[in-house]
Amino acid sequence: MDNSFLHNKKLLLVDDEPKLLKMVTAILADDGFQHIVAANNVKDGITAAKEEKPNLAILDVMLPDGDGFSLLQKIREWTDIPVIFLTARDEAADKLAGLGLGADDYIAKPFLPQEFLLRVYAVLRRCYKEDAPLLKLDSCTVDFSRAEVDKNGEIIPLTAMEHKLLETLARNEGRIVTVDMLCEALWGDNPFGYENSLNAHVRRIREKIEADPSKPTSLQTVKGLGYKLLARK
After folding, report:
1. CA distance 12 to 14
2. Phi/psi of residue 182, nearest 5 degrees
3. 118, 129, 143, 232: which could join 136 in a potential S-S bond, CB 3.0 to 4.6 Å?
4. Count of CB atoms within 10 A of residue 162's CB?
5. For residues 166 and 41, what is the distance between their CA atoms, to the nearest angstrom?
6. Three state DSSP letters for the chain
7. Residues 6 or more apart from 78 whose CB is under 8 A from it?
């Protein structure tokens, strides 16, 4: 699925580690984001949030002149933009504190770039809606707004879980999405034990979108990792 409408969103990064700021900026820029603002302390973060008016803030918890929690509280005084905490602290109390203040997600360092991007896209899509486009595959067209597959003129409905799974893959078209990330997208923060259910949903989706489900060309398995969806060019 095309992410271009999200690439125009302005992102604010606040972290006091220059190497991490540079790395995260590069990850986002390489993926297509065009407006990235960086700050390395609470004071500059507040200034940047007021002046730049970002669409998403990614905040470290530990900052030299305070913490990300207090920065979030300041930001919330004039805007309700989505916020992600990106921090080395993965303690349950910190996570609950951040989420309790209204944060939208919490990612612990170190992290995989693809996982980071998936979470950024997930938060942005929840907060900034776009008319669902048609997804053209080798053997069918998927209409996400109607939750339907048009396969040679036959209209096949998608269940809610099939729709969510296919949409998650479509948002990352051409990229590998791990089993863990797909399970989390479908079943929430405790996705363990759902791999068999995920496989069953994949099989049913293939029956609806593939010309030959036993030889899939659109929804492909990447052995040992997960799945990727290939759209028709």
Report:
1. 7
2. -70, -40
3. 232
4. 20
5. 39
6. CCCHHHHCCEEEEECCCHHHHHHHHHHHHHCCCCEEEEECCHHHHHHHHHHHCCCEEEECCEECCEEHHHHHHHHCCCCCCCEEEEECCCCHHHHHHHHHCCCCEEEECCCCHHHHHHHHHHHHHHHCCCCCCEEECCCCEEECCCCEEEECCEEEECCHHHHHHHHHHHHCCCCCEEHHHHHHHHHCCCCCCCHHHHHHHHHHHHHHHCCCCCCCCCEEEECCCEEEECCCC
7. 50
Angle subtended at Cα 116 by Cα 182 and Cα 165, rounded to the nearest 5 degrees: 20
* Cis amide linkage into residue 110, ω under 30° from 0: yes
The tokens describing 203, both together, are 């099989």
Nearest to 171, CA basis, from 220, 125, 218:
125
The count of C-alpha atoms lying within 13 angstroms of the C-alpha of 204, restricted to the half-sphere facing its C-beta, is 16
> What local confidence, expressed as pLDDT, does residue 146 receive?
82
How confident is the model over 71-114, as pLDDT tens digits?
Answer: 998 998 888 899 998 877 656 556 656 566 678 888 888 888 98
Q: Model-level pTM?
A: 0.58
**Digit-coded pLDDT (tens) for 193-209:** 788 899 999 999 999 99
